[in-house]
Amino acid sequence: MTYRLHSYWRSSAPFRVRIGLNLKGLAYEIAPVNLLEGEQGLDAYAALNPQKLVPTLEIGNGIQLTQSLAILEWLEEAHPQPALLPRDPTARAVVRTMAQVVACEIHPVNNMRVMKAITALGADQAARDAWTRRWISDGFDALEGMIARHGGGFAFGSTPTLADCCLVPQVYNARRANMDVSAWPHLKAAYDRAETLDAVVAARPDNQPDAVKT
Ligand SMILES: N[C@@H](CCC(=O)N[C@@H](CS)C(=O)NCC(=O)O)C(=O)O
Which superfamily does 3-82 belong to? Predict the structure, then answer.
């Protein structure tokens, strides 16, 4: 079975999953969901993902997985090699902490539906930019110390982990928000290392079949 990933080229949550699939060398096809056209709200998609968000991973036998961290954890359990979590339980917790700083603290308050909601409350572009940068900065401040302590080339240790799957797309988002990530040197070094991997290059937004070239 070739997995089928419902994805939007620029969205960071599916970007995490693309990195994980690529690091594990798994075959998958992309089913584009155009968020700007509202395709995530169509009945056919909502039947796959009741939250009307990307990503969704179809894994066969009529089973769909949603929530990028749950998908990455499933990939790790279903396809253990190469490992994206260390063996030691404490080390695993640290990697999950890093991943969750991005996926549970930074990203949820900056996704499209939240930005639409604060716009509806009156936030103009300057206010939205300040909002986005504030939450990314807070999260990156925390990650900087963790990566300084635990990094060894990658965010944790010397091989890519779930932390890198989450960090790379979040740095992509920070750069879209015109943030200079050199303010977080350990985080930037981990990002710079990760972005050289073929698995990450193939997962990049501009290398997706639905990418809009500007
Ligand atoms: N916690 C979810 C977040 C999913 C999410 O927010 N996806 C965004 C794209 S990164 C989305 O589908 N947004 C559509 C919308 O806000 O309407 C996950 O990790 O999968």
Answer: Glutaredoxin (3.40.30.10)
